[in-house]
Amino acid sequence: MPIKDTKELYCFNEITLSTKLLELLSKAGIIVHFFGYYENYIGTFYPKNYLMSGKLTVAQAQAYVDRRMEIANAIVCGIAKNIHFTLYHYYRHGKKDFKPYLDWLKNDVVRLAGAAKNIKQLLSLEGEIWARFYASFKFILPEEFMMNKRVKRPPDNPINALVSFGNSLLYSKTVSQIYHTHLNQTIAYLHEPTERRFSLSLDLCEVFKPIIVFKTIFECVNNRRISAAKHFDKKLNYAMLNEAGKKIFIDAFETRINQTFEHPVLKRRVTYKQAIRLDAYKLIKFIMEDRTFKPFDAEDNL
């Protein structure tokens, strides 16, 4: 595998690494993501950050103090817009049952987000957006992929397994994209900045979940590329993808995140993966130049 063509590595099984390999990876700026037994993200080997900016870090922290609600509000509204875009495709093809949810996303979420007085209220609204979204699965997916409730660590059924695995993949992709900017990954706005995780990656990946993770899940399941009977471990109550299922989902996820679209501002084709980094640049411009921060909006770009 030519190292000059390698940007990141994903480790889904038990492996042994030597310090010589880690030194080689570090010099080449290659990030390595590790996943646990239940396909959950457990950590990243992160080469020395070559794009450090004390000025931006100070400004990023100041924005957390002064303008956190403004950034968090934009992220929550971005989630709602991209869920609306994702579900409207099914609505146009005869799935009329979740029209009340679509109307709520389009007409009420921006008002409710604007009325929120603190982060706790915004997070409550975000939770309601996702809860209603999960409830709409019964109109899209077959019965074997119904979600009664969101369960993590570990997931308890096929749909929770797919969601957890897809979210972990997207989070790690976001970590990699932010690594190539001057942003400090530990300073976040919607999620609380905490130890032992890159909270900013959690922020920026949220708006991409509907159009990358869930579109991948819907397409894999509805096109019968993945089935509960064939692609999940029966010994674990179908709560974990088997090797065949994992390969199918990763292939579909990679195809999706590397899909291109015509960027309305740049006037060239970019991938969803590049769009994540572009959102990071938008945040930098908001912090340093006071430009409007508007996360990726699928309706504007596709």
What is the overall number of helices? 13
Quickly count the domains: 1
The proportion of residues in beta strands is 5-15%
Helix content estimate: 40-55%
Poorly predicted regions: none
CATH class: Mainly Alpha
Report the CATH superfamily: CRISPR-associated endonuclease Cas1, C-terminal domain
CATH architecture verdict: Up-down Bundle
- Adjacency order of strands in the biggest sheet: 1-2-3
Instruction: Give the SSE order as H and E letters.
Output: EHEEHHHHHHHHHHEEHH
Cα(first) to Cα(last) distance is 34 Å
**Overall morphology:** globular
Biggest β-sheet, characterized? 3 strands, mixed
Mean pLDDT: 89
Task: Fill in the CATH topology.
Answer: Four Helix Bundle (Hemerythrin (Met), subunit A)
Structural class given helices, strands, pairing? mainly alpha
How many DSSP E strands?
Answer: 5
Alpha carbon gyration radius = 19 Å
How would you describe the overall organization of this protein?
The chain has 302 residues and is mainly α. The protein has a single domain (51-301), classed as Four Helix Bundle (Hemerythrin (Met), subunit A), CATH 1.20.120. The protein contains 13 helices and 5 strands. The longest helix is centred in the N-terminal third of the chain and has 25 residues, at 68-92.
